Amino acid sequence: MDRGLLDFVRSDAFRKLERETKRNYGTDYRTLLNSLFLRGLSWQQATRQDLADYRNWRCDAPGNPERISGTKWNREAAAFTKLFKWGKVYPLPVDVSQREDRAADSVSARVSWLTPRTWGLWSDVGLRGHTLARVASPSWESRTELRNTAFVQLLLSSGLRRQEGGGLLLFELPTQRLRRGRYMHGRLAGALTRSKNSRTYYTSVDAVGQTEAYVQSERAWAVQRAQETGRYERPAVMQQMLLITKVTHGLKPEVEWVDRNGVVSSQELSSLKWRIRQWLFLEGPDGPEPAWLWLTEEGLPMLPDRWNGVFRTANLRCEQVLLGEEARKATRDLRLGEVQSKSPYATPHSARHSFALFMLVLLNDLYEKRYGLTAKDRRDFALLFGDPWWLVKTLLGHADVETTKRHYLAPVAHLQLESILAAADTTDEGEDIEDLNGVFARLARETAGIQDIDVILGKTS
């Protein structure tokens, strides 16, 4: 047992990290410590040369069959830097703030984009149990279909991260509809965001409608079953329960609650982290029920990281329906690219990337068609309101537009905005006849990384 590492894990430097970050860093530390142990070193004895050798092995050594990407190395470097700084190991064996200790090729290999039609196929097959003919399979049984499809639609139409969308409370659903629009806007608590800054987010009326349908049906049934079986009265829940007594309104709404001992507390809604949110309850007509929006079948909060399992199951379902038996024998990483492209693959973050791509194309389409802006008009419009790149950056909550371009819109970042729609088919009179589905299909053919239904179903050569 490394006493120094144990003290670090118990320190504020580590304890204040998010749950998933702790898990990722723990894996990174184990790999490094094993490597140093083989050299007869503790982590307090590591030097810059030791970490340079370790980085070379992890990222570049031909003899390592499990080399990692630049993005993965940057995460590991951040983890190691935190450990070495806390342990006062100087000079720092690695310092993620220094350019030479970061990888230049740090574009995530896990990024994937699905066109709107492909999301429809993935949802129908993976979440609704449809066959290739797009009809429900007689053997399909899913008691959480409404919940899963509503969550995916919310992320797709808003661009929220998994923790942002997965940590919402019932009364945080948008209620205000934009004037004559198909979108609604809500306020996202800073405690759920990566930047820890609250922001306004927008989501479609349809997505909110699906979520409300889930609340009134599947969620209500789960709560009813939990109340009937006394699940909320069990000691493990009662000891943590925080019963909400009041939610204020205004620029800085506060939530007031009382615990099992009768102690009254309050906190700004924007500063409520998911660890507290999961124990917040509302007084319902038949007793307390969770304020957490997304619930398990047992009527308990569906924690954000559990959505990975929902997406994983949906991906496997798509493979079973869309791939042959031989193709399914190999793991996804070992399949040929041609085989991979025959089955859509999505993660919660794929919804965020796909939202960014959709909004870029849609905004550019509005600029070009609806407003009929000339090149000069576009420049003037951009000076007043920002160009589509900037608007998408704002919707995603990024601080820097380069992050939006480099990580979220990599397939089209090399294109000039004017060229995204330039190749659209036209009539003899010069009128556009290519709709947005056609634009996405063309982008999928011309750029790497975008999954489109035409390729998956073999409709294009």
From TrEMBL:
<dbReference type="InterPro" id="IPR013762">
    <property type="entry name" value="Integrase-like_cat_sf"/>
</dbReference>
<dbReference type="GO" id="GO:0015074">
    <property type="term" value="P:DNA integration"/>
</dbReference>
<dbReference type="InterPro" id="IPR011010">
    <property type="entry name" value="DNA_brk_join_enz"/>
</dbReference>
<keyword id="KW-0238">DNA-binding</keyword>
<dbReference type="InterPro" id="IPR044068">
    <property type="entry name" value="CB"/>
</dbReference>
<protein>
    <recommendedName>
        <fullName>Core-binding (CB) domain-containing protein</fullName>
    </recommendedName>
</protein>
<keyword id="KW-0233">DNA recombination</keyword>
<feature type="domain" description="Core-binding (CB)">
    <location>
        <begin position="1"/>
        <end position="88"/>
    </location>
</feature>
<dbReference type="InterPro" id="IPR010998">
    <property type="entry name" value="Integrase_recombinase_N"/>
</dbReference>
<dbReference type="GO" id="GO:0003677">
    <property type="term" value="F:DNA binding"/>
</dbReference>
<dbReference type="GO" id="GO:0006310">
    <property type="term" value="P:DNA recombination"/>
</dbReference>
